[in-house]
Amino acid sequence: MIKKGIRRQIVMHYFIVVFSTLLLAEVIFLFAIRSYYYDSIYSHITQHIKLMEEYQKFITTSDDGRTDLANLLSNYKLNYTELQILNMQGDVLINSSEFQPDVSIKTSDISQAQSGNIGRWVGRQPITGEDVMAVSKMEQTNGQDTYIVRYVTSLERVNEKLLNVTLLATGVAAAVLALVLAFSLGLANSIVKPLNTITAVSAQMARGKFNVRIKGDYKYELGELASTLNYMAQEIVRSNQVKDDFISSISHELRTPLTSIKGWSETINSGGYDPEETKIGMEIITKETERLIGLVEEILDFSKLQQNEMKVVFGRVDLKELLQEIMLNLWTKAEKRSIQLRLDSVDKPLVEGDANRLKQVFLNLVDNAIKFSHENSFIDLQVTFEGNNVVVKVHDTGIGISEDHLVKVKDRFFQVDPLNGGTGLGLAISQQLVELHHGILLIQSELGVGTTIVVRLPRLLEEEQAEGLQATPYELPDGDQGIHES
């Protein structure tokens, strides 16, 4: 007995379908064979009757004008068949066998013959108990005497042949079912065994063993499933590695400013210092503290975005003014590396969004461009209209990003160059903030040539500008609530 499972379901479905098909085909086949044999017997008797009717026209009658029943019986007789001559009431007047029925025959062939048709009846002979076929036809002699000529033939030999055919057909069907059963078991095993392998490997993955892989060249959906699970394990391993790298990196990022703060704090507390040295130490403590705050805020922002808890206040934002402000904020940093920031913008590129969050996005993009650009180079900020969108492009001619890194650069914790510091969350946060504004962030880059980052945001149309600003509740994805100004 096959235990419950996919194997049993496949075998049972195949078996039921094939069994039903074979049963239907066998019933139709046996019915057709039976009809063929029975119709052949009936056709043979009716042909004989027609020939005898033609012959009977030339037979002379007795002196009193009546046909002799014995002659009629002799003329109409048929080999291996009992012939009965009946009157119109169904009483047997004479027959070719030694058995003489003492009751009237009331079978359906008699009533059909009485109505002028050739009657046919298949049933069991009351006297002998064997299966027979009776064919009856009303005959008129000399225009005055009317009789019913009835042929009764045994079907035992025919039924025996039909039984042999039935047994043969049943044997063939049983052999086909056995073959189908073996085939379905093989098919089920070809599906279940890979599934068992995949299940076993998945169980190991569930226990944290992500170094295992599903081996085997599986086809179709099973192959896709195996490939997907292997890819999942590979991505989990990669994510864990990225997470570990992030923890290592953020630990270093946090340790450096904390070490500076601690060192200068101890120096100041120890006494014996001059005012100029104290000023330098306090500036370093302030700078490193701001750096720590920035790192913590970046991590907190990412956490809020992941949990859909980021609060946004939507209003009218002029991207040209926003970018000019960002250029002023980063001018000193760019000036230290002799990098020139250039802005080319259309008038009034208005969008609906949170000015602080959009500033966070473009600050991160421009800051990255400065970080990875060569000295004495340019960074171009371009703002244009494309249909109902405002498109902002941040282009630099820096080190660029390789194709391998380009597909991962927006992943959380990923850093193209870990030595440059940071959490690896900047682009991931920017991506999600742009999506919160129903926009798109694209990165185009070529290693050694430069990078262009494209941000496409829905444009605030004139009719929307004319409505003015009014704060209304705004629902973020997954039910998060914020403030929406329109």
Give the SSE layout.
Blueprint: H1 6-56, H2 69-76, E1 82-86, E2 92-95, H3 108-114, E3 119-124, E4 131-141, E5 145-154, H4 156-206, H5 220-270, H6 275-306, E6 313-318, H7 319-336, E7 340-345, E8 350-353, H8 355-371, E9 378-386, E10 389-396, H9 403-406, H10 426-436, E11 440-446, E12 450-458, H11 462-466, E13 471-475, E14 481-485
Parallel strand pairs: 6-14, 7-9
Antiparallel strand pairs: 1-2, 1-5, 3-4, 4-5, 6-8, 9-10, 10-12, 11-12, 13-14
Helix pairs in contact: 1-4, 4-5, 5-6, 6-10, 7-8, 8-10
How would you portray this structure in words?
There is one protein chain. 52% of the residues lie in helices and 20% in strands. With 486 residues, the chain is of the alpha+beta class. The strands form 3 sheets. It has a 5-stranded antiparallel sheet with strand order 2-1-5-4-3, with helices on both faces. A 5-stranded mixed sheet has the order 7-9-10-12-11. Strands 8-6-14-13 form a 4-stranded mixed sheet. A hairpin with a 5-residue loop joins β1 and β2. It starts with 5 loop residues before the first helix and ends with a strand. It is built from 11 helices and 14 strands. It has 4 domains: 109 residues, no CATH class; 92 residues, Beta-Lactamase, CATH 3.30.450; 85 residues, Helix Hairpins, CATH 1.10.287.130; 175 residues, 2-Layer Sandwich (Heat Shock Protein 90).
